Structure formats: structure tokens, C-alpha cells
Amino acid sequence: MAIPVIDLSKLNGEEREKTLSEIARACEEWGFFQLVNHGIPLELLNKVKKLSSDCYKTEREEAFKTSNPVKLLNELVQKNSGEKLENVDWEDVFTLLDHNQNEWPSNTSGLKETMGEYREEVRKLASKMMEVMDENLGLPKGYIKKAFNEGMEDGEETAFFGTKVSHYPPCPHPELVNGLRAHTDAGGVVLLFQDDEYDGLQVLKDGEWIDVQPLPNAIVINTGDQIEVLSNGRYKSAWHRVLAREEGNRRSIASFYNPSYKAAIGPAAVAEEEGSEKKYPKFVFGDYMDVYANQKFMPKEPRFLAVKSL
Questions:
Q1: CA–CA separation, 270 and 275 (whole Å)
Q2: Angle at Cα 279 formed by Cα 273 and Cα 282, nearest 5°?
Q3: Quick one: CA dihedral 155, 105, 40, 185, positive or negative?
Q4: Whole-angstrom Cα distance, residue 24 to residue 16?
Q5: What is the pTM for the complete model shown?
Q6: Sign of the four-CA dihedral 21, 32, 38, 146
Q7: N or C: which end of the chain has fewer CB within 10 A?
Q8: Using CA atoms, how far apart are residues 130 and 150, in angstroms rounded to an integer?
């Protein structure tokens, strides 16, 4: 069993209806799918790959060797207790936001310009995917994006758009630690440019962990908790995790198009009618994030109940 692979270029041709249906089924049955022919230039993707790897080697690798996960794993191995590290991830990560560009890694020539260009391309792809979801859910065009951008003025988006650049370095004891613990994503639409070569990302499907197979230059799409709420449960946010590996430094670049922290999120009217009743409360996304921060790796249903409803 493999997660769906969808050719996005067919959305513009005579196979449009079939492609829309494939995306709808992937959202309903998986919450994860891979896009090929998505429109992001191959030359740009190749630059992103190279510069991200260069950045890790020159600006991140040495610090990871003395990081908390490494120290804790060494202590655990010395204890030889048979336990596993449950509250830490074998991951090096930095986050790129529009307003923190002065904090972006600065010693890798061309990284800022390339990642800025890449983020613009991914932001456009996120908009396209939200419009596809609008259409498949029977919502007005632009509904999801508008819901995420509450308070938008003069076309200036208020939605949160962040890019998390992760590396999962070789681990001497991958059986004792997670690359990234199992979780669902809190926000809206996630667009992942993952490693071409090294696997490790898995999604939970019908009680079984399925590999998200490396596919060169594909973009992996997954839906977050807020899409589950807006669709009144028709689209589910999927549990996923990353396994630590003994060999290979796995690269993962995930971009998150999330609601503004002030946005009010609840089941859309059309989604309600189909389900006949609201299955989720309406809440302010920032309040949800306060709950999620403490419950990210715990069952998701209690999060919806714990957040203050409007």
C-alpha cells in the first residue's frame, strides 16, 4: 500500500474531473498525497536541495553533535536500561518566516534568496490546493483561504506561513529514539519537499504505518487539524512520524499555511449540511494552538474539546 501520487498538471486538461476526484479521495481516505508536475521549477528545487544540505554541513552539524538529543541518547545507552527516549526527537530544525529573515542562517551563500523564492512558489501552490479543496467540498472559491486570513486588509495576508527546515542525521541507535514523534499537524495545509533518497516519514492508515516513499522532486501534501474542522470531519488530519535512521542525513522542508492566530475556525456551512450536525466547535485558532502546544503528541480528539469555543 502506497500513498496516492497525483499529477497536478492534469487539473488544467480534459482529465480535470478525474484529478479533482483523486485529490478528494486522497483527502478523505489518507490526509496525505504526493504531487508531481506541480509547477515549481526543477532548477529551483535542485538549488533548495543543495543549499539546505550545505547549510546543515557548515552551520548546523557541529552544534547537533552536542545537542540535547545526542546527550540524552548517550546517557541512555550507558545506562543500558532497555528504555527508549520518548520525549525528544532526533532532529535538527530551523524555521523560516517572513518577519524573521534577519534570523535566517546567513553563512550559506544564496540560501536566503533561494529559500525566499521557494517559499513564494510554495505559497502559490498552497493557494491552489485550498481552491481545489473548496471545489471538492462544495464551498465558494477562496473560502478556506479567506477563513485563514481573517482581518485581511488591502490584500495583505494575515495567515501564518512558515517553513521548517529539518535534518535527521545518522543515529547510532535508531531503535532507541524517534526522528519525530507521531502527531497530527495543528494548522491548515502542509507542503513538504522531502529527501529524494532517504525514507523515514510514515503515515498511519487503518492502524498500519505506511512509508511515504521518496519520490524525486514531488511535493507531499497533508491536511492539518483546521482542514478537518472546516470540512466537519470529511477530511481528516493524519497521524505521521519520522523514524530515526542509522545511515543517511534525511532532509525535510515543510511549509505550513495556517490560519491567522485571530481567525475563527469552525465547520463550514456546506460541510455541516452534509454531516447534518456540527462535529466540531468553533474557536479562535490562537486558543487552539495554546492547547496544541501542550498536547501535540497526545490523542487529538480531546484537543477539540479542550479549546474554548465561541
A1: 9
A2: 95
A3: negative
A4: 12
A5: 0.94
A6: positive
A7: N
A8: 15
